[in-house]
Amino acid sequence: MSDDGDADRSRRFRETALPHLDDVFTLARYLMRDTADADDAVQECFLRALRHFDSYRGPAMKPWLLAILRNVCKAEFARRSVQPMPPERKDEELAADDPPLWQEPQPSPETELLRRRDDDAIRRLVAALPEPFREAIVLRDINDLSYRDIAEVLGVPVGTVMSRLARGRGLLRLAWRKSETPSSGPTVEERSP
Q1: What DSSP assignment string belongs to the chain?
Q2: Structure pTM?
Q3: How confident is residue 167, by pLDDT bands cut at 50, 70 and 90?
């Protein structure tokens, strides 16, 4: 291919693929559970997408990129399964990550503190979901994909997507309620002499 053809291909790729970078990174963080690994997975995803960009024929770039990312992450998990795994990150480390991209600035420090606490709790709860439910939740509720696009990314029927979303949301609701319920410590009467 000529230099002009390469430049045009690169320009078209940048215009169609790069607007989805944040969404791809968001899914990568939830799948890889580590920001540095997510960065590597996103980079590999975009390299593969660029390499195969000439064969891309679909109208929806985002599902195509997310499917590539999912394959990259699965390949990485398969590679790691034959190597000793590093210890998982603690909840405090997950909470220390950057705030989500969808978070809007709040007018008061108190409101910001409460929102950050809730966002951190939701991130931890989503990260703790079993993988099939976590993927479905992230693709639908964070990346805003349609059920059909999620089915395409995951390689499952639409009914399975709907089932995973319903079960995943139910698990999140249950986990949220448990996290919001005060621990069963001594009552006021029990603490009084």
Answers
A1: --HHHHHHHHHHHHHHHGGGHHHHHHHHHHHHSSHHHHHHHHHHHHHHHHHTGGG---S-HHHHHHHHHHHHHHHHHHHHHTSPPPPPPPHHHHHHSPPPTTPPP-SSHHHHHHHHHHHHHHHHHHHHS-HHHHHHHIIIIIT---HHHHHHHHTS-HHHHHHHHHHHHHHHHHHHHHHHSPP----HHHH--
A2: 0.56
A3: very high
